[in-house]
Give the backbone structure.
Amino acid sequence: MGLRSRSAVSGQSTSYRHYWCGVSLGNSPPGASFRASPAGLRRGSHRRSARFCGRRRISPRQRGPCAAVFSWGQTFSPPRGVQRSMSSQDEQNLFTNTAPWYDMDTAYYSESDLAFYLEAADRAGGPVLELACGTGRVSIPLAEAGHEVWALDLSASMLTELARKAAALSPEVRNRLHVVQGSMSSFQIPQQFPLIIIPFRSFQALTDDHDTSGCLESVRRHLASGGVFILDVFKVDHKETIATTEVEHTDWERRDPRTGQTVRRARRMPAVDSEKQIIYPEVILYTTNQDGSVSRHVDTLALRYYYEYQLQILLATHGFKVDAAYGSYDKRPVASGTEFLFVCSHSVGVPALG
């Protein structure tokens, strides 16, 4: 998982709630991929007949008023209604150009977070909702461990990578993995969950107050009574200054096991908005082609950073209480870690907002 786009698809006429997409990856042939069906993407084009996804029948009520249904054996493409409503900020966080190499970028996350979320899922004992699932780095291991997983992401590029990986799974595991394309700033799934997670800092891709509020309101609606919500953002000390740099810094260089290409990952920070607490890092990947030529792939991110007290206030005002706070996935204290990892639940007596 990573810092993927989840900015709002705003405006009543193009709200994500009118485009939620239920996807089952079960009982699908190996090597298959998926795309959004052209039908049902425009407002008012809701069809009365049921569609099928694999062998799982999806009724019109389950699909929602303008849902897109993904089918196998086709190439994934984003719903046109969502695509048209994207702002430039949305596009900044979709990993449109670098998604095929995202899973190679192990320098920026520790696999210890998988053990952390697997433990949380085991304790929850029910279906898991992962927001900003990306390539399925967390969702797929959860499904492999026997958990029913709903995985939501806005990026067509990242979901294409998830579909490629899911095609290699057994039908039994694919049956437990349900993929939803849409923004985590506003979503509707027809059930509640005992565990909702936003791993590895993805929440920070919401840089607008309306989007962050919408996300937390949606989480609260979908969190079952007694359920657990886990939020992870990177830690910034209140004395710390985030500096801009026009110079590219190389993080790693390695060979892509799928293509044999040499891939070099670099980064730079061309802009920082200290007033709004938003950084604009660039993810840069250089790939060496078979003919020796080098291609450059760039994605610009927009990420909001928080201080601990701001997160505490934000969660409290949206009806959550923090039951545990860690500085990393090994559950070390916040003061000695690099993360703000908050384990939350419903606040007693505080009604859902919205």
